[in-house]
Protein 1
Amino acid sequence: MGELYIALIHAPVYNKKMEQIATSITNLDIHDIARCSATYGVKAYYIVHPGQAQQDLARRIMSFWQEGYGAEYNPNRYEALTYVRIKSTLEDVLKELETEQQGKKIYTVATDARPYPNTIDYKNLRRRLEETEDIFLLLFGTGWGIIKEEIEKADYILPPIYGCGEYNHLSVRSAAAIILDRLRGK
């Protein structure tokens, strides 16, 4: 079975005016995506932000649940947070994976609420995960999504998640949970 990793990209992403920005790291994104990662067999969950102050904030939030009272109060959260790694750039994530995986092919898989022509459907990506020993890194964007140039560099792009109506702006936590269930759920 292939190995699955997640990167939550905070920069460069779009704001609602389609300007490139860096978004803030949120407490809920750290916890909820870590819990999904643990539940669905993700090897590591990378939080990608170039700002040192934001990285320090994420580490402080995580340390509360990994040391002392927080670790004792909620050991399940402690366990889920062991999957989290913090990096400054997507390139840093890829370098770490290349070093750890030595020789295995690493595929990047972008996600977005907008459709792109170079997509792989969930069924086929799930089959690739089940049938190969390859590494797959899911890229989730914060704000209004990863910038187009970065999405287009990905090896694969998953189609948007559609509900039953016109509204299409899920939280990244919700999108990650749905996508992980489609790729790894029973």
Note: The two ends are 15 Å apart (CA to CA).
Protein 2
Amino acid sequence: MAIHVLAVDSGAVRTEQAAGSSAAVGYSVAVLCWLLSAGVYIAAKWVSSEMPPWALCFWRVLIAWAILLPLVRGHFGSIAALMRARPLELLLVGGIGLAICQGMVFIGLEYADATTAGIIVALIPIITMILARFILGEPMGTWQVIGSVIAFLGIVVIIIKGSPAALMRLDVNSGELWVVAGAVCFGLYAVLLRRAKFELERLPLLVVLLGAAALTALPFYLGELALDERSTLDGSGLIALAYVAIPGGALMYYLFNWSVEALGAARAGMLLYLQTIFVAVLAYFFLGEHLQSYHFKGAALIVVGLLFVTLLKPHTTPVATKP
């Protein structure tokens, strides 16, 4: 009996150690993922005066798609079946979330600083929750409404740079509005992806959506080739593109999928807020940006709103099952 108990305890210890090790790896992968993602904002801002946004967007998703495609070759049959069954839906979801969203953020970075963009993007979970309420009918309690309003006020403080007079004069940075629009697009992407329930594993589905994003970004990129004199890539543009497409693109997407498998979607997604911190730190060292008082005030309101939304979730009444 003692041996049996010892064996059970040892097995439990090994299971707990394995689970702890898996979680530790998952968190490490997630931290690296969001660090690489933060670098995309720095690279895009660095070449914003030399490289047009849709060129950066198109080549980023296309190169990431080409790198990840061989990794899912065992799923080509199921990928082809899904593409035949739901092509327009895949194009819509992938185009909104991985092309239009990125293009808007890159346009915004031509006029807004990277630090502000990183803070604004932290609103994505709240935007997703609001859109899910109207599109999917998911519950949204009183505290979620209050938290959303507080977080929205935080974004307003940042956009008007803490000056109510700027709001009265409509003196706002158009780039920051583009970043807000990009965050809304990503929230919409998350909701549409949840509603679609594509029957495909995460990484193969990501590859399909990246292909859809490349197709969506292509017309915008071709328009830039005809109209934007910055369309010729120079040395800085190639360096930035190499970063956003490979470590900040394919590798980042792969690591995010890995972190979701190890931690679950909820915990992996909540680590998105690390990206805001990383963007601010990297922007300070590489772009010479400094946090201003309105950044702190706005970020404080956003954090309070996020705490209300995440910690004071509405209670759902369980549905009684029939005997």
Note: The radius of gyration is 22 Å.
